[in-house]
Amino acid sequence: MKTFVEYEEMVARTGEGRSKIVPLLGLVGEIGDLHSTIKKLFLQKDHPTFRAELQEELGDTLWYLTRLASVYDLSLEEIATDNATKAEALYSCGVNSRFDNGFPPDEQLPRQFTVRFTEKKIKTGLHVRITIKDIAIGDALTDNAHKDDGYRYHDVFHLGFAAVLGWSPVTRSLLKRKRKSNEKIDEVEDGARASIVEEAISILLFNQAPERGWYQGDPSVDVGLYKTIQQMVSGLEVKACTAKQWMQAIRQGYTAFDQLQTNQGGDILVNLDDQTLTYKNFRRNR
Question: DSSP alpha helices (H): ranges in 72-154?
Fold first, then answer.
């Protein structure tokens, strides 16, 4: 037996009809037997036939699993391939993405740069302006909320996406680094729709941050959240980034966000080569 196809053919030969309930009930039963085999190992520390029994139970489970897939005309090979892709996306560290490689230097995100966040009191509360080398970038932002929640600093989340994922249509727009030499890339990847998607992800993450411990724990970016993000970025280049990369981008962004809010501003060193954000309190350096 060398391939999934050959195994499926064997299961088809040894199965009975195309009943959908029989393979399901058989699979449930075999999982019960598998549970009993494992339980026996815990109860009997010395269990010399454990490996042989486990192999048999796994084989029976595989048979019913394959049979269940076949009655619904699903390919075991396609199932395995899709599952492998999913696992890689969830658990792989990924690669340091360079979505703008090959574009002119003035259309690439700077690999290292510093952004200053300066907070100022205004009549309606507080606003934050960001600058690079004393040049204002974008508009000053308030929280746009009934209570002070610090969202005026949310551009740091986009910087986190840029640093770790190599992706941020919002940052490209702020820095005037859109890839205009390729009309389609400029329209799809760097255009308004992509920026709206990024802002929507930022809002989604921000609204869920309190219940997720502000993304400082390992389980904070779970499969469900990752799937939601992947659905939102479907068709965009950043879809290639893994859950671990998203976790690092979000975690670093929120760490920097907390430091900015606590210190009422500061400098954020963005390093795409190291995939890091580093906070510096410029007020202490004066």
Answer: 76-91
Please check whether residues 63 and 145 belong to one and the same domain: no
Tally of structural domains, the chain:
2
Residue 246: domain span: 105-280
Handedness of CA 220, 223, 229, 233 (dihedral sign): positive
Domain boundary among 68, 91, 114: 91
- Say which residues have a Cβ less than 8 Å from residue 47's Cβ, sequence separation at least 6: 40, 41
222: number of Cβ within 10 Å? 13
Give the global pTM.
0.78
141, containing H or E segment: strand 135-141
Residue 98 in any domain: the answer is no
Pairwise CA distance, residues 184 & 188, whole Å: 6
Q: Do residues 83 and 46 both lie within one domain?
A: yes
Calpha distance 137→118 (Å, rounded): 12
Residues whose CB falls within 8 Å of the CB of residue 250, separated by 6 or more in sequence, listed in order: 157, 160, 205, 215, 220, 221
**pLDDT tens per residue, range 204-251:** 999 999 988 888 876 667 788 888 999 999 999 999 998 889 999 999
Same domain, 258 and 167: yes
